[in-house]
């Protein structure tokens, strides 16, 4: 028996080691795809898509994935792709798979986000943003729009309304006609609707209308491959159908189980279901369930207090929080 237990222990340790290697390889394996001569996207299985803009002064980075280790590799890739030191980092929203790579960049570098995203990070993710990580929280925030002129390039960020969360922004690389949509766009994947964080299946459709008013040709989604305007329109059709079908089921007094059994979606052809065991699941049932929770009021947006604590800022004052902000940047390495 002792020999059997010893053998079993060795096998379990071996399997755990193999699992750790597999996870490490997934975390550190990147694919780079050019979108234009000056815009690239970095893909990874465990993290949101990263956009990199090349300017005459260096790189502009949109999102930083899930781990500091990934952030370090993103920073190195960005400085090669972007023509020099990172000039600014933009976080599209507060979720860890788009922000937790921030601490790999220099404390006090320019980190841009909506004010609501900063509030969410400080309120719900406070354990992560301590010590040196606190200096990589967004320090230039805005409510409606933000523009930077960097090394001959124009970078415009817009908060268009609720969708994935209540604080999402999109980034337009003006001269390249490329939009980084963050998680307001999942391309051929089922989305997550973070109702607690201000997201809304009801409002997402109108937010996409405002996105389509912007001037772009190519789109980097938060998850999925690069697409175009038609990819945005197709995703909007899915969102519209999802809310219409679920709202009708709720109005008819159907339970969640009945709704899952009877809602008929046709706009999700080719959609990929994704999951990380014990962490998250994105499939047809999960997105119907979130829309149902919103329609019935079973889950509501949580209030987020507006406060700026010296514990977080460590002497780094956030940028002026106005409805619209425009800045021109000189060379500043991060």
Terminal Cα span = 58 Å
Number of helices: 9
Measured as a percent range, the helix fraction is 25-40%
Report the principal-axis shape: globular
Architecture per CATH nomenclature, i.e. the level-2 architecture of the domain at 29-227: 4-Layer Sandwich
Low-confidence sequence ranges: 7-22, 308-318, 330-334
Describe this structure in words.
- The structure is a single chain.
- The protein is α/β, with parallel strands linked by helices.
- The protein has a domain at 29-227: Metallo-beta-lactamase, Chain A (4-Layer Sandwich).
- Helix content is 34%, strand content 23%.
- The protein is built from 9 helices and 15 strands.
- The strands form 2 sheets. Strands 1, 2, 3, 4, 5, 6, 7, 8, 9, 10, 11, 12 and 15 form a 13-stranded mixed sheet that branches.
- Helix 3 links the parallel strand 5 (86-90) and strand 6.
Layout of SSEs?
Blueprint: H1 2-28, E1 31-34, E2 39-43, E3 50-54, E4 59-62, H2 68-81, E5 86-90, H3 96-99, E6 111-114, H4 115-124, E7 140-150, E8 153-158, E9 170-173, E10 178-186, H5 201-212, E11 218-223, E12 227-228, H6 229-251, H7 256-262, E13 274-276, E14 280-282, H8 284-296, H9 310-313, E15 322-328
Parallel strand pairs: 4-5, 5-6, 6-7, 7-15, 10-11
Antiparallel strand pairs: 1-2, 2-3, 3-4, 7-8, 8-9, 9-10, 11-12, 13-14
């Amino acid at each position: 028996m002792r020999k059997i237990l010893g053998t079993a222990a060795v096998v379990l340790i071996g399997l755990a080691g193999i699992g750790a290697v597999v996870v490490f390889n997934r975390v550190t394996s990147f694919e780079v795809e050019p979108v234009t001569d000056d815009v690239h996207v970095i893909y990874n299985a465990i993290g949101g898509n990263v956009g990199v803009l090349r300017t005459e002064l260096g790189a502009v980075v949109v999102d930083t994935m899930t781990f500091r280790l990934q952030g370090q590799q993103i920073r190195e890739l960005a400085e090669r792709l972007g023509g020099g030191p990172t000039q600014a980092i933009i976080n599209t929203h507060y979720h860890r798979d788009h922000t937790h790579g921030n601490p790999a960049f220099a404390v006090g570098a320019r980190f841009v986000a909506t004010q609501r995203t900063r509030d969410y990070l400080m309120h719900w993710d406070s354990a992560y943003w301590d010590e040196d990580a606190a200096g990589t929280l967004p320090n230039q925030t805005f409510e409606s729009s933000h523009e930077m002129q960097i090394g001959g390039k124009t970078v415009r960020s817009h908060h268009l309304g609720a969708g994935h969360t209540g604080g999402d922004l999109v980034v337009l690389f003006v001269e390249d006609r490329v939009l980084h949509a963050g998680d307001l766009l999942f391309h051929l994947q089922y989305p997550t609707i973070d109702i607690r964080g201000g997201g809304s299946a009801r409002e997402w459709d109108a937010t996409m209308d405002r996105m389509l008013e912007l001037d772009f040709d190519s789109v980097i989604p938060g998850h999925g491959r690069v697409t175009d305007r038609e990819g945005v329109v197709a995703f909007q059709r899915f969102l519209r159908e999802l809310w219409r079908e679920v709202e009708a089921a709720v109005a008819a007094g159907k339970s969640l189980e009945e709704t899952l059994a009877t809602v008929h979606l046709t706009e999700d052809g080719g959609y990929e279901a994704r999951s990380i065991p014990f962490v998250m699941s994105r499939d047809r049932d999960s997105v119907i369930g979130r829309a149902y929770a919103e329609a019935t009021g079973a889950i509501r947006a949580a209030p987020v207090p507006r406060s700026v604590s010296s514990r977080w800022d460590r002497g780094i004052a956030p940028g002026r929080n106005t409805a619209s902000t425009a800045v021109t940047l000189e060379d500043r390495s991060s």
